[in-house]
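One chain given next:
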Amino acid sequence: MPAAAAIRKVRVAILGSGPAGLTAAIYCARADLTPLVIGGVPAGGQLMITTDVENYPGFPEGVQGPELIEKFRAQAARFGTEFVDANVTAVDFRRRPFRLTVGSGTTIVADAVIIATGANARWLNLRGEQRLRGHGVSACATCDGFFFKDKELVTVGGGDSAMEEALFLTKFASHVTVVHRRSELRASRIMQDRARAHPKISFLLDTEVVDVLGTVTVEGVKIKHRRTGKVETLPAQGLFVAIGHDPASESFRGALELDAKGYIVTHDVTRTSVEGVFAAGDVVDHRYRQAVSAAGLGCMAALDVEKFLSEHGEAPMEIAAGVAAQTRKGKSRHVRPM
């Protein structure tokens, strides 16, 4: 007979390891709640694909996104946070303690849960884009820009992320064309000014990408001018998509209340529709979506968890065993990996 899956009881499980999750971990650890961060694969959130972070307090010269995440993580570890860099494959939020299946089958049983799974890059859903993803099509300039030295590139999007991607790519590319389907950019004025002032960047507004050309790698980008309907091909060896993100909440559909766009609905800032389950960061924030605001929400979630546990105490393991028995009968909520 196969060995029984390992079951581990923790007081607080934190799902996600971006600014929200790691800030929550720091606060929970300092409150002696010995949190376990289930970081997902890859771990670290959107800051792992961000270059210069100039608006996070405490770094007057700016800081690289991955470096900032590493500092968060080291600080959380210093106070006793444990980490599992794996995906959650099933959740059961019907009763405390909550049950999480992690990786290849390990079960985490938690008295409280903080969800800080963040958001995922949004794609254009073009046939050529999907075929060439990883072969000239990317949503991460930091990850892949190095491979495009002296190449002509196209960046899609009109927000701060698109401007940041374009500016970063100028370190390697011979030229970057920013394509945006609206007549005006949505980026902040300072980011627009920086991008427009750069000699390697040009703009095509009221224009959309309709296909990506190439067999083995990107050989061109087909665009359509919305006002005239004219279709033409831009010479390009790479396409970087920077059109926003979707909350990484699909795993919790049916287990928690979500809004029409998929963001986790919270009450009194971080409380979800299930008592004892809290949410923070980009998985709930569709307005600000900044590292500092995510960190602030992570702090609030941790303080809410501390108060919740002081009022409700620890759920006994025999209840956890009952939950496990119910799950073996096929009643758990299975979800897609984070």
Q: What stands out?
A: The domain at 123-241 is CATH 3.50.50.60 (FAD/NAD(P)-binding domain). The chain has eight helices and 20 strands.
